Amino acid sequence: MESLSAALEELQSRISERQRVRELKERLLGAVSRGRSKAERTLQKRREAVQRARDAELDRERGELLMAYQHQVPAGTKEVTLPRFSGDGELTIDLDPDRTPVENAQAYFKRYKKSERLGDLAPQLLAAARHELEYLEQVKTQIEVAETIEDLELLAEELVEEGYLAPEKTPPSRSSKGERGPRTAQTSDGLPLLYGKSGTENDAVLRAANPDDLWFHVKDAAGPHVVLRSDSRPEDVPESSIEEAARLAAALSSQRRDSKVEVDCALAKNVNKPRRGRPGLAYYHADRTIVVDLGAE
User: Fold this and answer.
1) Does the global pTM surpass 0.90?
2) Got the DSSP string for 160-198?
3) Which of the four pLDDT bands, split at 50, 70 and 90, describes residue 234?
4) Could you tell me how far CA 273 lies from the centroid of its own chain?
5) Which terminus of the chain has fewer Cβ atoms in its 10 Å neighbourhood, N or C?
6) What dihedral do alpha carbons 34, 38, 43, 48 form, nearest 10°?
7) Alpha-carbon gap, residue 278 to 285, rounded angstroms
């Protein structure tokens, strides 16, 4: 520094920047935590609905028994035990004492129909709830590894767009607002690397990948998309570059603090983004799994 005052000004600027990073991280992590709690409640409700759907046949049987034996059901009773049509014992049925046997039967038929519809939708509903939790875990990791205000503001913008965060009155300070292209690097062999630090950037990485490029993602955990250019010759890519790409995928993942991390590698053409999926999520078939030793760093 040219002077003591310039050095103090630079120090103060850095302290201020770190404080802003810390505060914005706390705000974004709070939004993710609230979203996760809501998503977990939704998943639990849908699991319960699936269980009710599995029990729906009993509701149908209750309704049929009440219709068949309606004249044997005492008025105002809270339950009745009736012989099952199968001859396999009896079934105790809860009743609304203010309803007639026929009205109670209709209520069971109505519940059966609703559960039947839920049963048909159950796979999609459960998948959507798990998809949301997977997305929020991904964003949590991206917030934790972010080091600059610009990176955090990009994530804030994404969370606003996805409905997890209320927009601030003051616009973001990012000069690159709206830019969502992949980030770039290079291996020691000179091969281009593409990677993302947000969901929208990860989507851009996948869009930019050529079919025979190599795609990397930490196995069964949250992490970035990393693409290693292969010039249409994936079989000729040096193993050293593959290891460097895998290391980048591991270092920016939720497992970055582990000593050894498994990273999946696939051809980009075997990676697909689900239709209407959250930013940065994809499904793939791995061709190989690489063990990265982060403890060696």
Assistant:
1) no
2) HHTTSSPPPSSPP--TTTT--PPEEEE-TTS-EEEE-SS
3) very high
4) 13
5) C
6) 140
7) 19
